[in-house]
Every structure is written in structure tokens, then in C-alpha cells.
Amino acid sequence: MAMSKKPFQTTLSEAMLKKAYSELGEDEERRQQVIAIIQKWFGQQPHLQRIRLEDYSIICFARGCKYSMEKIKHKLDLQFTLRTALPEFFSGWDPLKPKIQDALSCGSFLPLLDYDQHDRKVIVMRPGCFDPMLHKPEDIEKANLMISDTMGWKDEQIFVTGMVIIIDCQGFSLNHLTLKPLTLTKKQMYYLQSSPISPKTINFIRTNSVFHSAYNVVTNMLNDKMKQRLKVHGSDFKSLYKEIDRKILPKDYGGDGLSLAELTEHWKEKVEENREFLMDSERNFRVDESRRPGKAKTAQDIFGIEGSFRKLSVD
Questions:
Q1: pLDDT, tens digit (0-9, with 9 covering 90-100), for 106-137
Q2: Which phi-psi region, left, alpha or beta, contains residue 240 (left: φ > 0; alpha: ψ -120 to 50)?
Q3: d(C-alpha 284, C-alpha 277), whole Å
Q4: Helix axes 55-64, 69-85, angle to 10 degrees
Q5: Which of 71, 112, 182, 301: disulfide with 65, CB 3.0–4.6 Å?
Q6: CA 235, 236, 240, 246: dihedral to nearest 10 degrees?
Q7: Tens digits of per-residue pLDDT, 218-276?
Q8: Confidence band, pLDDT 50/70/90 cuts, at residue 313
């Protein structure tokens, strides 16, 4: 695959460049070096030839993988393999489709616009914000992933400083739990493994009795390292403020940031603005398994039978 005509130009602030240098050993020379190595490797993989790999994506993965070449290669291959093997999440990526419009209007995945006191990205997830009788979980997940891709394409800093997650369980009901197949949850958890970054902490708020049933199911899919990053605050926002700067939190949580409704509208508009990028990613981020060296990977190979999923691993 041909190199980009123009060298990659980072948009990180001076403070973030210093952080990337001190924590990742990143400088201009190393950025260009990793791009050259990965682009050359990518061009030698027959099954990846349909994919247009941007220099920006390489740098994001490099930062998330702490510049480990083998991890970068593994995560990139896994990312595109799963995007191919999970059509229930990665097909029909047109944000103007009525079902996707409805899903975006629910506000299930809401990155905050400001960073916290540790310069981390904060993402609010709301698994109980939609009526599970009206919305298919696959459509909600598609909308969430579209927002995630839109966020990541514009935000270099998240790959340097990392992210924290708030899971707001308000409205989470027995129907949310029973109408979503366990296999779908497992596939979501598996896909997290292909992300170049993993959450520093996952904070549960406004929990209820149904949450605890779901919590037990999900934690069984996590390894011990990830379990240590889970924090259950319940309705104690003062406890949450110790983890995340209150000033940047939504007004709904006693903060000074945009409300959940305002964030929902903001990200719906952003996804619509990036419609072409998202539709292109659906077409272009596909592995040609017929050309994979060795044995092609099918969904059955990757996910196996019920109960055979590996626990979520994190660095």
C-alpha cells in the first residue's frame, strides 16, 4: 500500500505531546517510523487489501498499544476482522435511516465535550434510556458505534490519556435484560478487545435491583484486571465526584456541562455531519477472508459456541 503523500501531522497540544513523549516515548521520528512499518506490513496482508488504512488510524492504535508493533498489528487485524464478522453491528451504517435516527435520539452513548481533571475522555452510557419493546439492541449498538467512530476520528487526545466510562442505569428494566440475547452482549464485550484503548475506570450510577443481575452476568466475562476498574456508586453522586471532576459532568448529575438531552442532540448532529465518513467505513473496513493466509476466520471460529467466549482482556 502506498504511503500518504503528506507526512502525518499531529494536532495534539504541546502539553499532550509532552505527555505522549514521557509516557509513550513518542516523538516525530517515532510517529513516522511506525507509520512506515505498519503501512508496509499492511500492504503485505492479502486479506486486508480492500481496506484503506489511514496514517491517523495507525497513530491512534500505536498510542493505545504503547508503540508495541506486535500489539498494533494484532489489534488492527482483529478490529477489521470483527467489523466483517459482526454485520449486526457494522452493516446499514446510514445515520439517516429511520431506525438509526430513532436510536441516535435515545442518547445511549454520550461522550462529554470536556476532559476530566486527569485529561481523560469521559463517556456516559445509558443502557436503560430506550424502550426495549420499540428499539432493537442491534440498532442501539450501531448508533453507539457510529458515535464512537465519529468521536475517535476527531479526538487524538483520547488515545494518549485514555477514557473513563459512566454507566447510568436509570430506567434499566427486566425487559432490557431479557430482550437482549446474551450472545449479543458477549459479542459486544469481545469487540472491546479490538479497541486500542481500554477504560481506566467504569463507574455505575443510579443502579437498581435489575442492574445487579446484569452486573453479575457481565463481570463473569471480565478478567480480574478489568474487574478492579469497576466502581459502583449507586445514587451517591458525591462518590462519583471523587472520580470525575464535577464541573464537566452533565447538569443531570449536578455538574456544569451540557445536559443529557443537549449531548444527545449534539452527537446526533455530529454523526449526521459525518454520514459519508461512516458509510465509507462500512464499505471499506472489510476483510477478504478468502485471501487470508492460512485458514479463513468465520464468525463461528471467532465467537465459538455459547459459553466459549474468552474473558475480556485488557492491558
A1: 999 999 999 999 999 999 999 999 999 999 99
A2: alpha
A3: 10
A4: 110
A5: 71
A6: 100
A7: 787 777 888 888 999 999 999 999 999 999 999 999 999 999 999 999 999 999 999 99
A8: low
Q: Residues 199, 165: contact at Cβ < 8 Å?
A: yes
The three cell numbers locating residue 98: 429511520
Higher local confidence (pLDDT), 3 or 20:
20
C-alpha cell at 254: 449536578
State the Cα torsion 145-163-253-258 to the nearest 10°.
Answer: -70
Element housing 203 (H / E): strand 202-205
Alpha helix stretches (DSSP H) within the chain: 14-24, 28-43, 55-64, 69-85, 87-90, 98-106, 137-154, 158-161, 174-178, 182-192, 209-219, 224-227, 237-243, 260-273, 275-284, 299-303
Separation CA 92–CA 50 (nearest Å): 19
Comparing C-alpha atoms, which of 64, 21, 25, 23 is closest to residue 198? 64
Residue from 223, 215, 165 nearest 193 by CA: 223
Is the Cβ–Cβ distance between 20 and 26 less than 8 Å? yes
Rounded to the nearest integer, the mean pLDDT of the chain is 90
- Of 156, 188, 231, 170, whose CA–CA distance to 82 is shortest? 188
CB 25 within 8 A of CB 68: no
